[in-house]
Amino acid sequence: MSELKDLVRKFIDLDDDLNEKIEKELETSEELGETFEEDNKEQLEELGEIYHEIEHLVFNEEFIIVSNAKSEDKEIVALIVSEEDEKTEEFVIPVYTDEKEANEAIEVFKEQFGENEFTYDKKLGNEIISDYSEDEGFIGLAINAPQWDFVIGGEDVHDCCD
Prior knowledge:
Layout: H1 3-26, H2 36-39, H3 41-60, E1 62-68, E2 79-80, E3 91-96, H4 99-112, E4 118-124, H5 125-132, E5 138-143, E6 151-153
Parallel strand pairs: 3-5
Antiparallel strand pairs: 1-3, 1-4, 2-3, 5-6
Helix pairs in contact: 1-3
């Protein structure tokens, strides 16, 4: 398994655990207690550190991107995340860490969009970000979606330091 995949799973697990703590605290109060952040400081810092590592890995990671095989221009699959009545259609590009993840997603897409056929190619994370950075509706990359619930913002991906 790739380092990126491991880090994203670790991030999701930590984030889920923190969300459970938040939900539990909000059962008895309308707001988080004043000490919540201090009580969970280590976990919050670890989430930030892991996210930063993911930002760097995504920049140079080779991903699999899925496209509609029937379209002339090889239309990349995008997942719309905005409401229908919003002025700008916001979207994420689903990217996959391996062929197994891509094939699982394609099966889901086939169920949702029956008549379409899908294919995939490989591309570096920074190239995908660059391709869509001028589009005001582009939010970022959804890693292994819809199987995972993890999106990294396009503006967060960088390769600055180690």
